[in-house]
Amino acid sequence: MTITECAVLARFLAGLKIKEWVRPEHHVRPLVAELFLTENCNLRCISCACWRERTRDELTTEEWKDVLRQLVDLRIHKVNFTGGEPLIRKDAVELMRYARDIGIRRMHLNTNAIRLTDARRAEVLDAGVRSFNVSVDGPDAASHDYIRGRQGAFELTLRHLERLIAERERHRLKIRMNFTVMKTNVAALPDIARLAQRLRVRLYLNLATDRTFLFRADAVGELAAVADERLEEALRELETVSRADARYLPRYSDLAYVRQHFGEPVQRSVPCAESQLKLMIHSRGEIGGCWGHDPRQSVREIPIANVVDSEGYRAEHARLFRKDCVGCGANYSLNLRVRPTTYLDDGLWRLHLRSLVSS
Ligand SMILES: C[S@@+](CC[C@H](N)C(=O)[O-])C[C@H]1O[C@@H](n2cnc3c(N)ncnc32)[C@H](O)[C@@H]1O
Ligand code: SF4
Ligand code: SF4
């Protein structure tokens, strides 16, 4: 991180603290833009709503380029390309290159990696993307392919993930393997941890929800209802794995949050930094603030800056920061990282003075 980047981050964190402790109406400007290049997909994950209905009239290449120029003017620090599956858009790499050329220095990609072939990986790296989340929802083909709705998905995703990992040192990549915890795969938590350690890639646990944008579907509600006993059993074994070797695994504080999440999705005592950090542009141009924020205005009607600076948007953001929201667990790890008590909790766990699940 450069000195300027440290200063930007420090200003953002200070803004959060002012908002939490001094002035709840204090406005924190977003640093990261999450671009849903498309809400369509080449997989059919049982936990996701993207593929259930075809989304039409998505932003064109030129419209996305205009969005990127506006983000530069807004001094957005980092752009995340996501979806749906962003790599099914023919212009995905063109947009990444354009972002780099107009001065966006940090770029991230969320992908199922099905289309992250050798040629595409080279293009994406050449365009300047240095951070990746690759979704793996099971430790073996049977469980992953069942959840992802396509036979052979595990083999392709793993092959492309392994090749990306092989490039990690050369390009100084940040790579995370995203596992979305749901009813169907909760018992596989210890095995997915072992897989992450075998691949030497950081494991992040996403938490299934049916309450937010992209995931609202009747069938998802059932999957997001993870039973306490099954979660506890899986976490107990995961804790044993982690006690033996904690490398690449979520920290104690993250797992403690996961343990609470399905019974208490809002966890209001931990304010939501995600809602302050991000600006979300949906595939048809709607301008949103976080996963639980249903946007009303579109880049097709109004400049992004006018929305971000409006009273209504700021009021919504103050509400989301206090977690007066549906609660979705998005980026809970970031929410924990900005709290000093998190480090104390993790330290106590390392000293065996804290335990995730009592035996
Ligand atoms: C919507 S996908 C978009 C990027 C890409 N298509 C992928 O699968 O990685 C982003 C993340 O959302 C996760 N996800 C899927 N269903 C979810 C749900 N019901 N609740 C929370 N996250 C979910 C996916 O597993 C993935 O890690
Ligand atoms: S989670 Fe990702 S890969 Fe799966 S259907 Fe949704 S957008 Fe597609
Ligand atoms: S927890 Fe609430 S405020 Fe945070 S991202 Fe989810 S819906 Fe938004």
What do we call the CATH homologous superfamily? Aldolase class I
Shape: globular
Radius of gyration: 20 Å
Secondary structure tally, helices: 16
What oligomerization state is this entry in? single chain
Through-space gap between termini: 42 Å
Q: What is the CATH third-level topology name?
A: TIM Barrel
SSE order, as H and E? Answer: HEHEHEHEHHHEHEHHHHEEHHHH
> Compounds present?
S-adenosylmethionine, iron/sulfur cluster
For the record, the count of structural domains works out to: 1
Number of strands: 8
Secondary structure: helix percent: 40-55%
CATH class: Alpha Beta
* Name of the CATH architecture: Alpha-Beta Barrel
Mean pLDDT: 94
Stretches where pLDDT falls below 50 for ≥5 residues? none
Based on helices, strands and strand pairing, what is the structural class? alpha/beta
Strand content: 5-15%
**Main sheet: which strands, in order across?**
6-5-4-3-2-1-7-8
How many strands, which pairing sense, and closed or not: the largest β-sheet?
Answer: 8 strands, mixed
